[in-house]
């Protein structure tokens, strides 16, 4: 069997073309950050706190839907 020799290393460094990166103003980013923070809080509420008393669908449907996720995250629910 013949061995494949590695490619020779070059002593020069390859320069990459400069790619301009546009700055995103905080004023445009803030509404999206707020939206995702509220959605995250809503998800945490349904997974961690909701016991069916204030659920939009009445009963324990949401609780049973996220039951295993609660145990996985360490929330007590029994």
From TrEMBL:
Keywords: Membrane, Transmembrane, Transmembrane helix. Pfam families: CbtB. InterPro entries: CbtB_put (IPR012667). The chain crosses the membrane at residues 29-49. This is CbtB-domain containing protein. It comes from Nocardioides acrostichi.
